[in-house]
Amino acid sequence: MNDQRDPQLRPSSAYLALENGCYRATALTRGPWHPDHQHAGPPIALVAREVERAAAALELTHLARLTASLFRPIPIAELEVEVRREYVGRNVAHFSASLSAGGKELARVTALAQREAELAIPSGLPGHPLPVAPRAVEESAAAKFPFNSEIAGYQDLVEIRIAEGEFFRGPCAAWFRMRFPLVQGEEPTAVQRVAVAADSGNGISAVLDFRRYSFVNSDLTVNLLRKPQGEWICIDARTLVGPGGGGIAEARIFDSSGLAGRSTQSLSIRPRD
Fold first, then answer.
1. For the chain, what are the domain ranges?
2. Tens of pLDDT along 198-234?
3. Class of domain 15-116+136-271
4. Which of 130, 82, 75 is nearest to 102 (CA)?
5. Does this model's pTM top 0.90?
6. pLDDT digits (tens, 9 = 90+) for 109-132
7. Which residues, other chains included, contact 241 with Cβ-Cβ below 8 Å and sequence gap of 6+?
């Protein structure tokens, strides 16, 4: 393949915008499970980008919830995004969106957008001030995902620093920063940065051996209480395993100012052959 470690051959963004809601995925979207499939974070972020634009047209600038249902593996190929308004009110709107390739729907996303308004927060509220990440970015050790070492992929799209714990050894908090744009020529928004990072919660907090088990998530839900700020997003995740082949990865989402939201993923856990 021509997307190896040579920086001159590496793509400069996760996606290239085409026409009519279509995009071409690059090698920077490659995930850990199969060399021809994307990590789910970038395509979910791509759909979030389209939803944000539809919401902004209604002057609804806070994406409070994003839920992605993943139907099929997402190929590193040309994708189409279609967004629909399900309900529009004065202060909120509900959206749905489809992600497709080759005429097949690969994922469906629902989202809730809200109108932002200034709010004076009373002092002394329980749980406030909001908690902060376990360790600041500047105090966190640099790390790198140990997969796809010979070819470009998601591990090149993001820069990682460990705020608490250790990769694949249970609860883990990691800071993520996108090294490249989501779409060529654009600065990623806060929600796009969160989506790219949040889908890694089940990976960084894995409690089962990658070599013996698969634990793929078939969904991702992100709830944001405010817009995150800055380039760095911290995912403070833990994985819980059930006796029937199911599991949950849950995470707190931080920026440099403190808690910004939460995420959950439903896991299908199976022994490898």
1. 15-116+136-271
2. 999 999 999 998 889 888 899 999 999 999 999 999 9
3. mainly beta
4. 75
5. yes
6. 999 999 999 888 899 899 999 999
7. 207, 208, 247, 267, 269
